[in-house]
Amino acid sequence: MARRSKRKSVQRLPKDKRHSARKPVRVKLDRQTLSHMIVSRSPILPRLPNTQDDLVVHSLSTTPIGELPVDHFAKLLCKKAESASDKQVLDLRLALIRIYFRAAYRRIFARATNAQIASARKASNCLQKAIGHLDDINPSRQRGLQGVFGSPFDDRKGLDEHNEFSSASMQIKLDIVPIVMKLDRMIEIETRKPVARGERKKRLRTLVDTLAEWWTATTGKSLAPYVQAKRLGRHSVVIGRRGGFADLARSVFSEIDEFGQWEVISAVTNVHESGLAKQQKQKIGVPAADPRVVPDRGPSWVSD
Fold first, then answer.
1. Rounded to two decimals, what is the model's pTM?
2. 78 vs 161 pLDDT, higher one
3. Would you say the C-alpha torsion 30, 33, 36, 40 has a positive or negative sign?
């Protein structure tokens, strides 16, 4: 007598769902959600293209309140004669998380580099040549537009018949054509974006730019750092730069992120000087819009 298997039957998933990737979790991030993340140490946030951004957001969303150096800047969100509480700390961390996401989105949607566009054009040219070579595989009277009408009616000798190889090649050609069209359309859209002057903005500059926008809108104070100098005889030596915005940027980008302090101060100074140049242009009637700043297409899941 055959033994019956004691293993329980496992319910199998449909074939179309067996190897499907896990769907990303979308979460509406607000003060209550962030507070729960900090307590449970289990952030549920979308991933960003840069791993370092993910690490900073993870730290902001899991470190207990009061343990990050940036937490004491929550006083910026307090009214006069009011001390910072957990509410202000959570609001500050929410603002910083939004800043990291918005800066990342700005880099994502910024205009491609000239080298990227040039490589895409070369790829398009190569694909178009490949389409021509694949078309040459077809019988002479079934190439180009003639192939649309099928086999010629007067081919009594069968000189223009398709064989298996030419039929497969024609199908490959038909598969490549929409890829070329999509690539050309992508190049066209990218080249319509305004060309930025100067060096392409990198990660730190976009972060400082976005933080500066928040700082101006929230505090209304100047971005200008002041110079700390030490007099040595007839000369003075710069030993540092301070200021409310500079201190906040250093606290975030040097102590939570991994940028050097002088890198951050240099970026702060550049952002401040860029703002002064824009104001000067506006005074004399010259448009001062920065073409490198794309419309904010930030994450809709981050609620205000």
1. 0.73
2. 78
3. negative
Q: Percent of the chain beyond pLDDT 90? A: 40
DSSP line for 58-115:
HHHHHSPTT-SGGGGGGGGGSPTT----HHHHHHHHHHHHHHHHHHHHHHHHSPPPHH
**Distance from C-alpha of 212 to C-alpha of 69, rounded to nearest angstrom:** 19
Q: How many CB atoms lie within 10 A of CB 32?
A: 10
Q: What phi and psi values does residue 128 have, to the nearest 5 degrees?
A: -65, -40
Distances (CA, A) of 56 to 43, 84, 145, 164: 12, 22, 57, 57
Nearest Cα neighbor of 262 from 246, 277, 248 is 246
Helices 164-192 and 114-136, axial angle in degrees (round to 10): 160
Exposure on the CB side of residue 192, measured as CA atoms within 13 A: 6
The DSSP bridge pattern shows strands 226-232 and 235-242 to be: antiparallel
Structure confidence by residue, pLDDT tens digits, 90-132: 999 999 999 999 999 999 999 998 999 999 999 999 999 999 8
Domain ranges of the chain: 24-109, 114-151+160-192, 203-283
